[in-house]
Amino acid sequence: MSDPRAPASRTRSGGGDPRAPANRTRSGAEDPAQRVPGAGKGPASGFTAVEEAIDRAAHRFLDRRGLREGRGSSRWRRAAVELAVFALKQGWAAIFGGLLLACILAARLWWPDDAPLARNDALTIAAVLIQAAMLALRLETLRELWVVVLFHVAGTVMELFKTDVGSWAYEAEGLLRIGAVPLFSGFMYAAVGSYMVRTMRMFDLRFTRYPPLWATIVVAVGIYANFFTHHFIWDVRWVLVGAVLVLWVGCVMRFRVLRTQRGTQLGMPVVVAFGLVAIVIWGAENLATLGGAWLYPNQVDGWQPVSGSKIVSWFLLMILSVVLVTLVHRPRRPDDRSPASAAGPGSPDVHRHDADTPPAIHGDDTTDCSNENKEPGHV
Prior knowledge:
Elements: H1 49-64, H2 74-93, H3 95-110, H4 119-136, H5 142-165, E1 177-178, E2 181-182, H6 184-202, E3 206-208, H7 213-229, H8 237-248, E4 252-256, E5 265-269, H9 270-290, H10 310-328
Helix pairs in contact: 1-2, 3-4, 3-6, 5-6, 5-10, 6-10, 7-8, 7-10, 8-10, 9-10
């Protein structure tokens, strides 16, 4: 008879069974303390099917390679796995924008100029189909759709004004348009909103020293207004950049790549994150103008790179984006254990402190994330 006191992970010879999963109890059942949040629950848990699959695959790989603890020489291999997962999730968060950009480039390369359906109309139909597919396949939630709609409306209004004053121009073709603005243009802003809200959910974003919500709204309104008023009065973008730095310079964004009890919580200054995303969007804008989606005045006689000064505009637009997202998904502190519904209207219900959710997701692990004087894991 086998010794009931013997660990379940031992073989008959007493050696550890390398095939035994690290998250099993003695009885062979899965240990809830090590369970990936959302496993087996689908979208209701906060993960879509693809996001859940990415996390599961990463944890299986860590278990099989004995990298779960991430100590000693295995620390770098675990870091490489987390970096790969980070890249996959970032790409997945930007899937809306990525697919739309691919459609823009494909339309420029292969769509006939004399086709019965205008190129811009085809792009509008493609954007609608992408959005419908993401909802139908449950790759995006209805709560996230509200943010996407906010971005769509705000972007379309700005497009109408900017094209009217000659800041940029679209091809004068197609029926699916408002004035000089093809309807697919609003989806480009919606893609930014989709990325922001999906990132907040997938990486369980938390913030230390986040500025007062009312102050961020005031700055966001000023940013949006300046996109219009600088054509008539003094451009105050640098004043607004200064206001952003004053409000957010001390704010640190906390995030987890692997959503488990032992998932490392990393940190990054929010203004750095804003800047990096602005540079990425500027790069995508270069590809979009190269594909002829729209043109700036200096590109009419021949394409040339978009001015680097546009990075500042995109940086300010990122602030506006974050504030719009926080109106639906309120920013949360690392030590916040309250139900998601208490975090603000529309917040994703992914922080429930029940038997299926590891304590670390609520800031209960060995890293004291609530101490603002400690900021481990800055990248």
